[in-house]
């Protein structure tokens, strides 16, 4: 489960937004083909309402991607196995039958002067289908967006704001960082990376952090995410996943050497995910209990 082909998080979604600002803004929507019916979470206005509208802007809200089409918003959450594939020409694309393959939604733009009709496809790997698409007049109508915490790349996300978030919290810091209602956009991979950069145990209770530790954690969050966005900048959508993987220092690297101290990276497994960490950098050299083993021994 510790693969980093996991959920696109803030840096990847930010990079997709930048990519679409470059390639989609100014394009006219020719049509939207919904292949995986369960992906479409809204019915009014219908997706057909997007036809003929122009893409005027692209925004990111946490892990949600938002295409503003003349005031009507096409919003998607790629969930765990979802991805966006840009196509330079969809004019020859065959209609797809629902239930076949990973394709969930295809958005087609009107042909340009060269006759090519660009667009993009939202695909979802795996059996758990959680990719979601919304067509709304206001992004705040999307339940997950309305409840988002502060964005860690925004000017509002100060050390003081983070101090307010952790104060009194009985939650382990790893879980707190992943909670979208607390801070928007960080998932399993980048919470591992942030905690490694901050030299902090993932099991540390958030409310126990000193002011100095909060300052270090804030610096680690902002720096880790900014660097990941920078590494991805200018890459084609198809190259973002491998870039994410190559840039990670601990996540998905169980058994490899920590590039900071040389210790062996370890993992703790949970029911549906795993975390990776470096004992020397983060836990005073002590391995954390892996609950998988204790379960097997019962």
UniProtKB/TrEMBL annotation:
Its cofactor is Zn(2+). GO terms for biological process: base-excision repair. Pfam families: Fapy_DNA_glyco, H2TH, zf-FPG_IleRS. Keywords: DNA damage, DNA repair, DNA-binding, Glycosidase, Hydrolase, Lyase, Metal-binding, Multifunctional enzyme, Zinc, Zinc-finger. Residues 249-283 form the FPG-type domain. GO terms for molecular function: 8-oxo-7,8-dihydroguanine DNA N-glycosylase activity; damaged DNA binding; DNA-(apurinic or apyrimidinic site) endonuclease activity; lyase activity; zinc ion binding. The lineage of its organism: Bacteria, Bacillati, Actinomycetota, Actinomycetes, Streptosporangiales. Residues 8-99 form the Formamidopyrimidine-DNA glycosylase catalytic domain. Signal peptide: none annotated. Belongs to the FPG family. This is Formamidopyrimidine-DNA glycosylase. InterPro entries: FPG_cat, FPG_N, H2TH_FPG, Ribosomal_uS13-like_H2TH, Znf_DNA_glyclase/AP_lyase, Znf_FPG/IleRS. PANTHER family: FORMAMIDOPYRIMIDINE-DNA GLYCOSYLASE. It catalyses: Hydrolysis of DNA containing ring-opened 7-methylguanine residues, releasing 2,6-diamino-4-hydroxy-5-(N-methyl)formamidopyrimidine.
């Amino acid at each position: 489960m510790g693969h980093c082909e996991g959920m696109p998080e803030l840096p990847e979604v930010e990079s997709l937004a930048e990519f679409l600002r470059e390639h989609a803004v100014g394009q006219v929507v020719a049509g939207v083909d919904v292949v995986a019916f369960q992906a479409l979470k809204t019915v009014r206005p219908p997706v057909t309402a997007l036809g003929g509208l122009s893409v005027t802007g692209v925004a990111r809200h946490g892990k949600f991607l938002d295409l503003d089409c003349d005031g009507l918003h096409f919003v998607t959450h790629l969930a765990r196995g979802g991805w966006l594939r840009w196509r330079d020409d969809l004019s020859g694309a065959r209609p797809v039958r629902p239930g076949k393959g990973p394709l969930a939604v295809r958005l087609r733009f009107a042909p340009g002067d060269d006759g090519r009709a660009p667009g993009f496809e939202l695909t979802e790997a795996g059996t758990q289908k959680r990719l979601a698409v919304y067509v709304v007049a206001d992004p705040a109508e999307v339940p997950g967006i309305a409840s988002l915490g502060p964005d860690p790349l925004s000017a509002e996300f100060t050390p003081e704001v983070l101090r307010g978030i952790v104060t009194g919290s009985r939650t382990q810091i790893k879980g707190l960082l992943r909670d979208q209602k607390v801070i928007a956009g960080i998932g399993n991979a980048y919470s591992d990376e942030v905690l490694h950069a901050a030299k902090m145990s993932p099991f540390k209770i958030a409310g126990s952090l000193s002011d100095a530790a909060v300052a270090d954690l804030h610096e680690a969050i902002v720096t880790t995410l900014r660097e990941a966005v920078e590494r991805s900048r200018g890459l084609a959508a198809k190259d973002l996943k491998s870039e994410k993987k190559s840039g990670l220092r601990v996540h998905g690297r169980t058994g490899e050497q920590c590039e900071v101290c040389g210790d062996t990276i370890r993992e703790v497994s949970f029911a549906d995910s795993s975390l990776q960490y470096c004992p020397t950098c983060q836990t005073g050299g002590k391995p954390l209990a892996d609950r998988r083993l204790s379960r097997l021994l019962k």
